Every structure is written in C-alpha cells, then in structure tokens.
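Record 1 of the preview.
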Amino acid sequence: MTGAVSALNARSSSTSTPRSSPRSPRARSRPAASPSPRPSALVSSEVRAGALVTPTYPSPRRTRAHHRESRASVAVHAAAAVSDDMDDGAPIKTTERLTPDAKRVVLLCAVTMLLASADRTIFSLGSLAIARDLSLSMSTVGLLQSAFFWGYGVTQVLGGVAADKFGGAKVLLMGLGLWSVGVAMIPAATLTPAPIAVIVAARVLFGAASGCTMPASAAAVASCVPAERRSSSLSLIFTFFNCGSAFGLLLAGSMIQTIGWQAVFLAFGAVGIAWSAIGLTALPQSARKGAKVSDEASGAGGAGPGWLSLPGWMYPQLGALAWCHVCINWGFFILQSWLPVYLAKELGFSLGGSGLVAALPWFLTAACSFSSGQIADFLVAKGWTRWKVRRLMMNIATIGPATALLLLPAAKSPTGAVCLLALMLGTQAVSIAGYHSYLQDVLPSRAGSFLGITNTLGVIAGIVANLFVGYVVETTGGFGLVFLVTAGVYASSGVVWNLNAKGRVMFA
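->
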C-alpha cells in the first residue's frame, strides 16, 4: 500500500518534479520485492469514486476542494487511504512472529474464553439438578436460562467501547472476575428464602459481565497482534472457546452426579476469579491501553468521526457486516441450546449420551477454528490479498453449514446425522478466519465497539431463534423446518457478504 500511495503522490507532483529515469538513484531505492508497484484496488476505487480527493502535495485547486469537505469525511478518507496491505497487489511474504507480549495476551484471552464458554454450558446441564432440588417447573427453568441474555444483550456496546478505550485484554479479564462472582453466587440461592430471585440476579450479572467477551477479544487482537497474524491468533482464541463448550458438556454431567451442582458452580467460579487475578497481574504493559487511532482519523475529538457522521458509502458496508453477524449467531445459538435436545428427541440418545455426543461436534469446531486461521495466514504469506482470503473463508463458513442443514432432515441414521452436524459446526467455525479477521482489517481502531453493536443484534437474533425453534418443534414435532430456515439464513449471509465485502478500510 505504501508503494501505491507513493505512486499517486509521484503523479500528483509530476508537474514540478522531473520524472526519474529507470536507472536513477531514486528508482533504484525501491525495494526489490516490489519492482513495479501499482496502485492497490482499494486506492484505485477511492480515486475512481472521487473519495480520495487530497494527494500528499495538493494543488491550490485541490486544496480549496479539500477545505470544503467536512472534517469527519476527510478523517475517514485518510483512514481509508492507510489501508495497510489489505488490498495491495504486491505479494506479502512475511516471516514476522508474534512478540512475547502478544503471545501472552493471546494466551490470556484464549483461556478466558474457554472459561466463558464452559460457564455457560454447566448451567444448561446443571439446571435439571437445580430444578429437582428446588422443585422448579420447566417454565421457571426457561426463565432462569433467559436471564443470562437479559444482561448479555445490554452490555455488548459498552463492553466494546471500554475495550477500545482501555484495552481489550484488560477488560476481558476484569469481566471474567465479575461474571465468575455471578457463577459462584448461584449455590447461595439454596440458603435464601427467595432462591429464584437470587439465581436470576446471578444469571443477569453473569450475562452482563460476559457482554465484553466478543468485542474485548477482538479489540485485544486488533491492538496487539500484527495484521498478518490476526487470523491465527483469533482462531486460537475461538478454538479455546469451542473447547470450553465441549469441556463443560463432558465434565458437568459426571461432576454434578459426583459432587453436586453447588460444588461445581463454586469450583468454576473460584477458578475464574483466580485466573482473572493472575491474568491482570501478568498482563503486559503494552496491553493495558486501548488501540491507537491514527492522527488523520482522530478528528477534533481524538476518536475519529462518530458512527452517525460517516460518509454514505460506509453504511451499506457496516449494515452488511451486521447482517452476517446476525446470521452467524442465529445458527450458533440454535446448536448450542438445542443440539442435546435434537439428539435425544429425534435420534434416540439418552440424556447422558446426548451430552457426550454433543461434545464431539464442538471438538471438531475447535479444530476447524484453529486450522482455518493457520491456513488463512499461510495464504496471506504466499501473496494472497487479505480480503480475498477472508472472502474464501466466509464462503466456506456459509455454503458448508447451508449444505449440511439441507441434507440433515434426510439423514437415515444417527451416525449420518451426527456427521452432518459436525460438518455444519466445523465449517461454520471457519468464519473466525473470515468475518472476525475481516473486522480487524477494515476496522482496527473500532473493532471492539463495532463488534459490540453487531453482537447485540446477534444476541437478539439468538433469542428470536430459540423462540422460533421452540414453537416449530412444539407445533410440528420435529426440527425439519428449523434446519431448512437456518440453511436459508446462512445462504443469505453468503450472498450479502460477496456483494458488499470488498476490503475497503473504514477506520485505520
């Protein structure tokens, strides 16, 4: 991209500076890896659209035009020009490794995300024991399950803004300590005259503190990890997250039967509080602050133009990204909440057996999360432009689940159905190297806050999805229509992505 911008600057000043010959010292000073740099697709599209109106050495006429633009628009255009190598045609062969500080941040975030996923899973299995001991109806259990989303849905934006400002890893670890208190509070319900109210309060606290997980992990990677290593770093973090779901499903059932649900919640809460304290102590100094916003994009307020004062071309881009996140969450929450029920109801597994079988696709999901990130970074190192790598991964993450879900109602055996479910979850996990890595590329200084916005919409989609599944299963007696509609949701995500995601940087 540096070569592209230099080429534009050379053309804009050609009237006053003689053109260097091919053998001149100026020509020989170019890096050998880029003998004939050409403008990137990103910059070329900006010039064709008339958005990049200010060259480095502007003429008087262009200077006057520049001053007529709004400050916010100029800031965004400058940010778009500093697009790193997102769309540069030159090969990007890098051997850059993560610094020790970056490795430490990724590891701290990965373990935290594992605990976040495990803490969610233990309640889904422990709720049956809680209902038995407290004589709760299934409708009350549903109330306790939904209480998590009451808190989780309202703190996404706040968590994202805090992560961008104070540092994603620090906010994530502080959130872990707070939600672990909520997990440990649940057993205290048996000691109070209002156990339902205590559990609801604990679940709301757990959800509210968990609202930072997705945006904070995104902000941590965006601020601490080089662009060429973000896919593998994000994939490692989400590999741990998916392993947490399998970890909780495997351990919760046996541990609850052995030591009781109260001890399980106390143990998981204590582990989370301890890891939060250890992580905050071990956090590198470089990760204790938010992302730096470039001077060009900082504007008068120091944080770039607001979300409501952007150029018109940005809104379709942001809307498309939001819709893709809604589609990802729709499928994810359905499988996370209803997979054991589907295995028990339609495939004939016992409740204990369904928990064990349900863990297997999550392990494959973890493996696909990790490997897709490694493959994405390998392709970038081989010279693929980053946005094309993200597009490839998102096509896998949408076509794969849609195909598996369309075939699932026709599965003739439990083994075939489980294999299709594994295919659906495994290919869906490739979105980490597609969607989530793409946000790091085009919104590096706003990755946390934007993900907070889109994940809020995704949480709403998850709530609607669960209500939809319950209604369909109750009225039709099966999951066939659920799988058909969800396949359509994934297909729409793929169409929207390919029409809109072109690697155009919005905030540097």
